Amino acid sequence: xxxxxxxxxxxxxxxxxxxxxxxxxxxxxxxxxxxxxxxxxxxxxxxxxxxxxxxxxxxxxxxxxxxxxxxxxxxxxxxxxxxxxxxxxxx
Length: 91
Prior knowledge:
By secondary structure, the chain is mainly alpha-helical. It has one domain: Orthogonal Bundle (Helix Hairpins), CATH 1.10.287. 74% of the residues lie in helices and 0% in strands. It contains 4 helices and no strands. The longest helix is centred in the C-terminal third of the chain and has 24 residues, at 50-73. The protein is globular. The protein starts with a helix and ends in a 6-residue tail after the last helix. The relative contact order is 0.13.
C-alpha cells in the first residue's frame, strides 16, 4: 500500500516549501491523504480486511492531529490546503 517514489516526489514538489521538503505539515497531510484514499478504495473491495482497516484508522488519527496543529499555527495556509486537497474541515 506504500506510495511509489514518483508519486511521492510529485506530492512533495507540489505542497512542499522546497523540492526536498518532506517534513512540513503540508506535505505530511497531503501524503497521508493520498494513502487514506488508496486504503479506502482497497477496503471497498476487501470488506473483511480488518488489519488494513485498523491501519486506516491510525492514519486518519495521525492526519487529524497534524491538521489540528497546522490549523493552530498557520490558519490561512490550513484553509488553502484543505480546499486544495478536498477534505473536510471538521477540526
